[in-house]
C-alpha cells in the first residue's frame, strides 16, 4: 500500500475530501503516470452533491478518487503500438470496456449491456491524484508542446467528436447537404454556453454551418468574444427567438438537458433536421409533448439522437482538433481555461465560479 | 373535358361524393390507366372528416379526387425504361417531386423544402376514379398475376420499406447486432394492430427480430391468427407490460401516434435502441417528458426517428416482399384485405368496419 | 472413439475416400446433427485434386472430412437463443471465428488476421459424414418444409448475400441509382453460368437490374430456361460482346476468376461502376493491365472489390431468399439441383457431370 | 470583347502561348475575380505536350486558357449564401456540373454521364489569366490571411479529401480499425513523392496511420525533411521493400499510375486492405495480373478503388486542413511551393524543375 495525494468522494452519497489516500501498489504495471491537470465538470460537482444516483465506488472501497478529465505525463511505460514513451504527455481514457460486442471492438462508448466502468464515476478510481497506473491502450498521446495548456479539453471534446460521428452517419438517411454538397447555408443551433456548448460550436463552424449559440440570458464579454472569434452568433432566446429560428434549424444541439427548451427548438427543425441530445439534467421538470409534436417529427423525417461518451479514436481526433484551434486561434484558446487552482481548493466543487468555462486543477501546486 | 366516375372531397373542409367528375383531357400523355383497386386508409378518412389541415385541392379546383393507395392496369403507355407495357398491372406512386436536392434524385419522400405534391392529399388528384393519366416513372410494375389481390398493399408497405432503410442506416451508429451478427435475439415491439402495424411486423420478423405487437386492448381472432402465422406474439400492454418489456426493447415501432404510449415504451429501450415514429395522430393529448427521459435517451445512445412516405425503390421492394409473403403464406395473405366494396359505398369513409385491416374499393363494381 | 460414415481427403495432398472414419466422442456437446444433404462445389473438387495449397487437415489428423455445403437435421440440442429445437432442419456455418476484431463480432468472413477455420477446408472436419456435433450459434434454422429440397443452396447463396452487402456499402460512394432512385435501367453483367453465377443473377434481378449472364460458349437448354424464368438474358461473349456492353455495365460480377475476362469486361464499366470479384481460379493465366486501364478505373471512379464467404446473417438472409424463390418459381427452383447421388459415388469429385448446376449427396442413400 | 493576359494551349494538340487573349465581356455576371496564383501540375504539362487526348477547347474556340489550380481575389460579387465579399480570397472550383443525378446534387466529381466540364482541361477556359468571371457557388472562401501562401494547394488537396471520403465509406465494409477502434497501428503506404503523394501522406498521418512514402529512387533533402516533419517514413522500394511491407499494408495509395508498381504493392495488402488508385499515367507499360492475384484480392476481401476530382465540400475541407497544417508546421508548409515564377515563364510547362513539389505562377509579376 502507498499513500497518494488525492481528491475523493463517497459515491453516490457525495462529499469531497483532499488528502492522502491509500491505494495498493500493483505488482506489475505497464505504465505509471504523473497527473498534470484535472478538469472539473458538472459530473464531478453532481457526485460531490450526491445527486448522481448511478455513481458508485470501486469494489471494496468506501471512497472513490474523483476525476475523469485530465492530462498526465508518462513516468514509465512498456513498449507499445501507440508510440508512447516516457516523458510524453497523454490524456487517459475515461470509460473502460466490458465484454459486450461494442466494448470488444473498442467502442465502450456504445456499450450494449452497461457493464463498462468510468474512471472517477462508476466503480473505478479517477485521475484526481498525484500519480496513477494505466495501460497504453487507455492513453492517448498529445502531439506537441503547444497543446499542453489546452489538452485537458480533449476529454470533453471527445464527446463532441463522437456526437458528430453519429450525426455524420444519421444524416446519410437523406441528402442533408445544400444544393452544392456543403453545409454552408445550413443552420446549427447550440443550446447552452458552457464548455461543451462552445466545443460543439467550434465543431459546427468548422463543418461550415451558420452557427448560433443560445441561452436564456445574455453572456459575459469573454464568451461573447469567443463567439465572435469563431464567426458564430449568440442570441438570448428569451428575447430573439425569431432571429434564431429564421430559415429554420437544420442541426440542433442541446447541452442543457432541459426538455422544455429542447422541444421549443425541436419544433423549429427543418425537413430532415437532426437534434443531438447531449446535456443531461435529470431533475429538469417535464414538458408536454403532444400528437402534433410527434406528427412534426414524422412528417419532416426528423431524427432525435442521444449521444454519450466517446472512444479512443474520438480522443485522438479531439487532440487533432485542439491542435488546429490552438494554432489558428492562438493564445485566445487558453481563455477556455478560465481558472487554474490547487488540488486543495476543494471549494470549487461546491462553488462554481461566475463565468466559468473550464476550471482546471494544477497538480504542480499540490 | 371528360367525365369520369370518381370519389371526391373538398380539402381541407371535408365531405365525400361519388359520381361523375369533370376533368380536362390531356393533349399528350405518356400513359393511360384503368383503376382496379383503391385501398382506404386513415388519411382518406381524416380528409373526409375535415381533420387534416395540411390537405388542399389541386390548383383551380374546388374538389379533389381522393385516393393514394391503388392498383391500376395500363391501357396505353409510351416506350419506357421500366419495362411497362399495355396490359401490365402497376402501382402508381403517391408523392411527386418538387425541385429540392432530394426530389431531384428521386427521393421526394425526403423533400427538403416541402414543395412536393401527394396524389389525393396535397394539391393533386388521387386515384379513386375510373381511369387516369400518368408517366412511366410514377408507375411500378407488379411482377406476377398471383399478386394482384395483395398488390394494393404496396403503397402502405412502401412506408415500411423506407422506415427500415432509415433503421438500417441509423443502426450503423453502433453495433446493433447480437454477438453473432444477427437480429435473432433482439426484440422489436410494434405499437398498434392496424395494417401498417402488421406490415411492420412482417418486416421485423423477416429481419429475424423476436417480434411483439401490442395494443391497449385484445385483438380479434383474425388478427391473432395472422400474428401466429408469422411467428410473432401479441400482448395487451394494459395487462402484460412486463412480458413485452422483458429483456428490454431494441427496436420500437410506433403506429399509434400517441405520445403517452410512445414514451411509456421508449423508457424500456435497451442501449443503442432505436424508435421508429410512424403513426400520426395530431390530436393526441400531451404526455410529460422530463429530464430523466432525456437522460435515458442520452446515456443509452438512443435514437428516435420520424419516417414518412417512401420513394420508387420502396414501392419496388414492397412488391418484392408482397410477392414473397403472398407465396409463403398462401391465401392467408388475402386476409389482409378484410373487405372489398363498390365505389359507391362511400359510407366506408365515415364508418370504419369492425376488425378492419384493409378495406379495398373494387372498381369493377362501379 | 466412434466410427462414422464419411468422405475424407488428405489436405492439401488430395485424394478422396468414402468409408468408416474414426472420431472421438465429445464428453459434452450442445447439438448433435444428422446430415441430410451435402452440396459439392469446385472447392471440394480442388481439394480432391490436390490443387488447393491453402487447405490443411485438422490438427492431429492425417485426413479431413470433406464438405462445407449442407443441410442437417437436429437430433439433440440444448436450449438456445435461436429457436432451434430437435427435429428442426438447419444449415451449418462453414467458417469459424478466430480472435480478431471482426471474428469477435461474428464477422469471421472478414477475419483480419487469418486465424479462422473452415469446415471441410482449413483445419476442421466438414459435414460429409453421417452425423456431427456443433453449437447453436453455428446452425441456421430452415423456416419451412417447402425449402428442404433447396436449402442446401444456402451455403453458396450466403456468399452472394455478403457480396451484395459489400456492394450496398461501396455503391454509397456516389449516387449509383438512376434518376428515380432505383436500379431499373442499370445493367448487371454476370460472368459465368455455374451455380454461383445463377444465384448472383437471381439476386441482381430482384434488385431490379437489367441482368445479363455471359460465358465463352452457349449454354444448355436447362440453363437457358432458368435465365428466361427470372427475366434475365444470356449472351456468349465470344459472339455478342456488343450486345452485352451496349449502354455500358454498371455492376460487373465475376465468377470465373479469369483475369483476361475480368479486365475485358471491366473496360466496359460505366462511371461509378462496381466490379465484384468472386470466382477464383489460381491457375488462370496472366493478362496485361496497362496505364490506360488504371486511368479508366480512376477517371470513372470505379471500384473493384474482392468478396469471400459470408457470416451468420448472410445464411439467414440466404434462407429467406431461397424461401421466396422456392415459392415464386415453384418446382423449377429444384432444377438447380441437377443430380442427387449416394455418398459412395465418389467419382463425382473427379468427374463433373455435364450441365451440372449443383450436385448433391443424399445421405439417406448411405 | 476584351483582351486579357492569359496562358493558352490548343487542346488536344498542345503547345503553349503567353500573351493577350481575346474574350467576350459578359453582359451580366455575378462575380469578377483577379487571379493571384496559379499552380502547375502534370495535367497542364500533359496538355502542352499534346499527350492528353481527352482534353478539348471550349466550343467555338481554337485555343483554351490553361489553369485549374488557383487562388483569386474577388473584385466584385453579388450577395450570396457563402459569405463571400469583395476583397476576399477564394479558390475557384475546377469541375462544373452537367445534368446527371450526381451533378444535380453538387457532386460533379462523381458525374454519371460524363457531361461535365473542367476549367482549363475540357471545354472551359481555365484560370491562367489576369482576371475572370464566375459564380459564387464555384468559389470557396479562404478563411484567413495566414493561408494565402498555401491556399493554391487547395485544388490538389481536394482530390485527397474526396479519396479519403471514399476510403471512409468503403472501409465500413468490415472493421478496418485496430482492436481499439483507431488506425494507430495500421500501415498506409503512399507510392510517389510528388505534391499529391505528400498531401496524401499528411492526411494519412493525421488519421493516425503509420505512414510510409516510397519511390524507386532516393529523395532530396527538402522532401526528406518534410517526411520527418510529419512523422512519416520514406523508403526506396528498389532497396527496402521488406521494410515497407513488414506487417503488411492496410491502406495503399498510388500516385504513380504505374500498373507494375501498383500490383507489386497490392500483393502486400492485409485482409480487408484498401488500395486507392489516384495517379494516372496512360502510357505506363502493362503488367501481368494472373489468377493468383485475383484470388488474393478475393480471399482477403480487398478493395481497389479509383478516385478522381472532388466537390465543393472537398475544397472547403481542404482549406480547413491547410489552415491547420499551415499553423502546426509553420513556415515549413511554404516549402511545398518550391518555386514562384512570372506568367511569361512558359518554359516551366516543358521543363519540370528538379526537386519540384509545386511550382506556382505569381500573377503580380505579369
Provide the gyration radius of chain A in Å. Answer: 21 Å
**Extended strand count of chain A:** 20
Q: Could you tell me the strand content of chain A as a percent range? A: 25-35%
Inertia-based shape of chain A: globular
Question: In percent, how helical is the residue content of chain A?
Answer: 10-25%
Describe it for me?
Chain A has 366 residues and is α/β, with parallel strands linked by helices. Chain A has 2 domains: 2-155 and 333-365, Quinone Oxidoreductase, Chain A, domain 1 (Alpha-Beta Complex), CATH 3.90.180; 175-300, Rossmann fold (3-Layer(aba) Sandwich). Helix content of chain A is 25%, strand content 29%. Chain A contains 8 helices and 20 strands. In chain A, the strands form 4 sheets. In chain A, strands 3, 5, 6, 10, 11, 19 and 20 form a 7-stranded mixed β-sheet that branches. A 6-stranded parallel β-sheet of chain A has the order 14-13-12-15-16-18, sandwiched between helices. In chain A, strand 15, helix 6 and strand 16 (269-277) form a beta-alpha-beta unit. Chain A is globular. The two termini of chain A are 21 Å apart. The model of chain A has no long low-confidence stretch (mean pLDDT 96). The B-D interface holds B 101, 104-106, 172 and D 101, 104-106, 172. Strand 18 (303-306) of chain A pairs antiparallel with strand 18 of chain B.
Comma- or semicolon-separated keywords:
homotetramer, 366 residues, alpha/beta, Quinone Oxidoreductase, Chain A, domain 1, Rossmann fold, 7-stranded mixed sheet, 6-stranded parallel sheet, 8 helices, 25% helix, globular
Amino acid at each position: 500500500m502507498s499513500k497518494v495525494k488525492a481528491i475523493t468522494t463517497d459515491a453516490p452519497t457525495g462529499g469531497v475530501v483532499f488528502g492522502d489516500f491509500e491505494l495498493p501498489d500493483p505488482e506489475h504495471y505497464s505504465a505509471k503516470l504523473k497527473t498534470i491537470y484535472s478538469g472539473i465538470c458538472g459530473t464531478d460537482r453532481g457526485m460531490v452533491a450526491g445527486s448522481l444516483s448511478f455513481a458508485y465506488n470501486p469494489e471494496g472501497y468506501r471512497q472513490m478518487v474523483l476525476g475523469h478529465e485530465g492530462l498526465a505525463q508518462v513516468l514509465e511505460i512498456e513498449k507499445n503500438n501507440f508510440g508512447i514513451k516516457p516523458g510524453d504527455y497523454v490524456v487517459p481514457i475515461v470509460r473502460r470496456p466490458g465484454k459486450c460486442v461494442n466494448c470488444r471492438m473498442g467502442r465502450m462508448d456504445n456499450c450494449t449491456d452497461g457493464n463498462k466502468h468510468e474512471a472517477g464515476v462508476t466503480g473505478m478510481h479517477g485521475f484526481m491524484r498525484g500519480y496513477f497506473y494505466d495501460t497504453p491502450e487507455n492513453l492517448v498521446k498529445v502531439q506537441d508542446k503547444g497543446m499542453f495548456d489546452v489538452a485537458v479539453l480533449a476529454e470533453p471534446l471527445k464527446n463532441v467528436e463522437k456526437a458528430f460521428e453519429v450525426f455524420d452517419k444519421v444524416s446519410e438517411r437523406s441528402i442533408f447537404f445544400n444544393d452544392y454538397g456543403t453545409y454552408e447555408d445550413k443552420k446549427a443551433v447550440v443550446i447552452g454556453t458552457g464548455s461543451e456548448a462552445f466545443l460543439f460550436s467550434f465543431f459546427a463552424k468548422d463543418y461550415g454551418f451558420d452557427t448560433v449559440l443560445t441561452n436564456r440570458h445574455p453572456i459575459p464579454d469573454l464568451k461573447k468574444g469567443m463567439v465572435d472569434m469563431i464567426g458564430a452568433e449568440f442570441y438570448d432566446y428569451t428575447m430573439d427567438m425569431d432571429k434564431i429560428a429564421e430559415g429554420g434549424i437544420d442541426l440542433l444541439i442541446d447541452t442543457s438537458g432541459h426538455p422544455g427548451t429542447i422541444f421549443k427548438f425541436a419544433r423549429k427543425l427543418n425537413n430532415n433536421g437532426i437534434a443531438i441530445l447531449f446535456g443531461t439534467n435529470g431533475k429538469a421538470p417535464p414538458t408536454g409533448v403532444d400528437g402534433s409534436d410527434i406528427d412534426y417529427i414524422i412528417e419532416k423525417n426528423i431524427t432525435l439522437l442521444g449521444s454519450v461518451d466517446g472512444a479512443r479514436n474520438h480522443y485522438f481526433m479531439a487532440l487533432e482538433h485542439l491542435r488546429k484551434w490552438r494554432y489558428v486561434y492562438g493564445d485566445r484558446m487558453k481563455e477556455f481555461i478560465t481558472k487554474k487552482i490547487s488540488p486543495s481548493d476543494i471549494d470549487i466543487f461546491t462553488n462554481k465560479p461566475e463565468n466559468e468555462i473550464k476550471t482546471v486543477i494544477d497538480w504542480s501546486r499540490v
